[in-house]
Amino acid sequence: MSGKVAVVTGAARGLGRAFTEALLKRGDKVCFCDVDVQQGKQTENELKKNFGDDNVQFLPCDVQKDEEFKDFFNRVIQKYNTVDIMVNNAGIMNENQWRTTIDINLTAVIHGSLLAMNHMKNKSTGGGLIVNVSSLAGVMPVSFCPAYTASKHGVIAFSRSWALQPELKRNRIRITCLCPSFADTDIIKGTDDRVHGPELARMVMKQYGLMVFPYPNDQTLYFEIVVSTLNPYYVAFDSENSHLYWTGRTLGKINRCNPNGSDPTTIVDVSIPVALTLDTHNSTQNSIALHKVTFDGKANQVVVNLTAWPIDIEIGMSVIYMLIKLKYYRYHIMSV
Ligand SMILES: NC(=O)C1=CN([C@@H]2O[C@H](COP(=O)(O)OP(=O)(O)OC[C@H]3O[C@@H](n4cnc5c(N)ncnc54)[C@H](O)[C@@H]3O)[C@@H](O)[C@H]2O)C=CC1
Ligand SMILES: CC/C=C\C[C@H](O)C(=O)/C=C/C=C/C=C\C=C\[C@@H](O)C/C=C\CCC(=O)O
């Protein structure tokens, strides 16, 4: 699955940089952009040292500017001939500049997705993956940043709506959203005049917890899961079956029941909803049986045993969706 060509927007720092590193570690080539040229060049130098000059490139681009964004995307194709993975990550949070917030967080994500789709459906090898970075603010109201929240809801609505299009399935293009909650990046620094109610923002942040770099088990892990399931021969969309994947701080484990009766093997940690991935991947294979769900009263001791065999991580993750459906996650929120 590695050896793909990826584009990441807003990757001079923060989550975009972490996603870029996750892709480079997989063996992909990454071309990233940012409006902050100085930081972009510095990040490029650091990444080139670790991953090789030919594998990573920075190009300045303000995704808010249509022509610039288009030129950037075309330059990547000129250099690498193709784009297999498009990560629309660039974002800001500023309620005072609500129009700019919508422009960058939603309009540019729509633009980036369309640029990618247009290219992916026409390329000879066909197919690709679009990862749009939304937020937990994309699935729930957040009183201290309404415009930001609207932009992130829009990203999910746009992505899910496209996912329903048979055209995407036909062209083997998959579209997905990542929905983190709070990660320790510049976007949340100085949460003051950019939000309505900094006190509440700080309180909510404390309640939900802050993911800190290098995200060994959080964002990048999920990013890797999303990307590693990119399979040009197995792509389907059905929003009815859309998955909601939650990740973040570890809450418990999903265990695989071994057919020989030996102790279950842990395949993935179940986590509290510090972050969420909404995935439009087909779930027709995910008719697993929930064998047992036990709670011992501690937030980190949920055990979910699966009877299906063999199962892969995708199928395992659908259990988390069930937990959400069953509203167990409320329990988790209340217990932290
Ligand atoms: N850190 C967090 O708690 C969360 C972040 N997110 C989302 O993750 C994405 C990345 O954010 P972070 O890494 O946390 O923030 P960050 O502030 O560390 O990084 C954002 C990057 O985007 C760049 N950028 C901003 N406007 C741009 C534009 N017009 N064109 C090109 N680049 C631009 C910035 O220069 C910066 O390098 C955003 O979409 C954000 O909304 C979602 C949920 C939680
Ligand atoms: C202050 C920084 C804001 C957002 C930046 C970050 O990029 C992001 O996207 C994080 C979003 C996280 C949201 C997480 C949870 C939000 C929960 C709210 O619905 C809770 C709101 C009010 C609490 C009052 C209450 O109902 O208890």
UniProtKB/TrEMBL annotation:
EC number: 1.1.1.141, 1.1.1.232
Keyword line: Oxidoreductase
Family: Belongs to the short-chain dehydrogenases/reductases (SDR) family.
GO molecular function: 15-hydroxyicosatetraenoate dehydrogenase activity; 15-hydroxyprostaglandin dehydrogenase (NAD+) activity
Keyword Signal assigned: no
Assigned GO CC terms: cytoplasm
Protein name: 15-hydroxyprostaglandin dehydrogenase [NAD(+)]
Superkingdom classification of source: Eukaryota
PANTHER family: 15-HYDROXYPROSTAGLANDIN DEHYDROGENASE [NAD(+)]
Organism: Mytilus edulis (Blue mussel)
InterPro entries: 6-blade_b-propeller_TolB-like (IPR011042), NAD(P)-bd_dom_sf (IPR036291), Sc_DH/Rdtase_CS (IPR020904), SDR_fam (IPR002347)
Function: Catalyzes the NAD-dependent dehydrogenation (oxidation) of a broad array of hydroxylated polyunsaturated fatty acids (mainly eicosanoids and docosanoids, including prostaglandins, lipoxins and resolvins), yielding their corresponding keto (oxo) metabolites. Decreases the levels of the pro-proliferative prostaglandins such as prostaglandin E2 (whose activity is increased in cancer because of an increase in the expression of cyclooxygenase 2) and generates oxo-fatty acid products that can profoundly influence cell function by abrogating pro-inflammatory cytokine expression.
